[in-house]
From TrEMBL:
It comes from the Bacteria. GO terms for biological process: D-galacturonate catabolic process; D-glucuronate catabolic process; pectin catabolic process. This is 4-deoxy-L-threo-5-hexosulose-uronate ketol-isomerase. Zn(2+) binds at residues 196, 198, 203, 245. The gene is kduI.
Length: 278
């Protein structure tokens, strides 16, 4: 079963007037994983889709939904998958890929059938991102050993972290989808600090590996007009192209960033220094 939700885009001048609940209603994706469902949120920011496949005791087939107006989900789209749970498998037009913990799979435009399943007793959690695609590129698995790994930050500023580029153009070809995973080192809490915007791309953050009972404050908005959303484990948040996207947790955690837009250059950022934030 594939369930979808639709979200409009928002002008930054309007967002300044939103209260806490309005911010959460428009930008927070509170429940990524639902038992035996594929749950998707379709955003008008670059027509990006984020969600999860949670096959507990049956296989799940990715299906097109009404807003796509297509026979198959990938008729005009590409798909990125990162498994944040136990080992699972993904079948793409009959070819089976074993996807372990924190491993990724890119699925190109034009594939007809994508099926998610458990591999054994452990429970996989398949996090999904999708963007429109103009060209079919080959399906490819990306293990952690294939990732482009970068160490960032400094314990002095509580932002020491390890960035894993997984579905990016330096590893495989995509149309516009880019995905990676950033792991905060124990004792560090800040991500994406110093912050930035990039009007060429929107972004979605998915937070996981957060200790029970802890929380993350995700910061968004224009640099001189910031807002925050408190988040729990296994939740995601939509970040418009005009918005910063940074967060701080009450413990360390991991997050997946997914991007779409007209630019595949990871380093294309309009940087903001911390003392410029308001």
């Amino acid at each position: 079963m594939t369930h979808s939700e639709f979200r409009f885009a928002h002008h930054p001048e309007d967002v300044k007037k939103y209260n806490t609940q309005e911010l959460r209603d428009h930008f927070l994706i509170p429940e990524i994983f639902k038992k035996n469902e594929i749950s998707l949120t379709y955003s008008m920011y670059d027509r990006f889709i984020a969600g999860g496949a949670f096959p507990v005791d049956k296989a799940l087939k990715l299906e097109a939904f009404d807003d796509l107006k297509s026979e198959n989900f990938l008729d005009r789209r590409e798909l990125g998958i990162i498994n944040v749970g136990g080992a699972g498998k993904v079948s793409v037009d009959g070819e089976v890929y074993e996807i372990g913990h924190k491993e990724a799979l890119y699925v190109g435009r034009g594939n007809k059938e994508v099926i998610f399943e458990k591999s054994g007793s452990e429970q996989p959690y398949f996090y999904l991102n999708s963007a429109p695609a103009h060209h079919p590129y080959p399906t490819k698995k990306v293990g952690k050993e294939d990732a482009e790994v970068i160490e960032l930050g400094d314990a002095k500023y509580a932002n020491k972290r390890i960035l894993n580029k997984l579905i990016v153009n330096s590893i495989l070809e995509t149309c516009q989808l880019q995905m990676g995973m950033t792991e905060l080192v124990e004792g560090n809490v800040w991500n994406t600090m110093p912050p930035h915007t990039h009007t060429r791309r929107m972004e979605v953050y998915f937070y996981f590996d957060l200790e029970e009972g802890q929380t993350i404050s995700h910061f968004m908005g224009q640099p001189d007009e910031t807002r925050h959303i408190f988040m729990k484990n296994h939740q995601a948040v939509i970040s418009p192209e005009w918005s910063i996207h940074a967060g701080a947790g009450t413990s360390n955690y991991t997050f997946i960033w997914g991007m779409a837009g007209e630019n595949l250059d990871y380093g294309d950022m309009d940087k903001v220094t911390p003392d410029e934030l308001k």
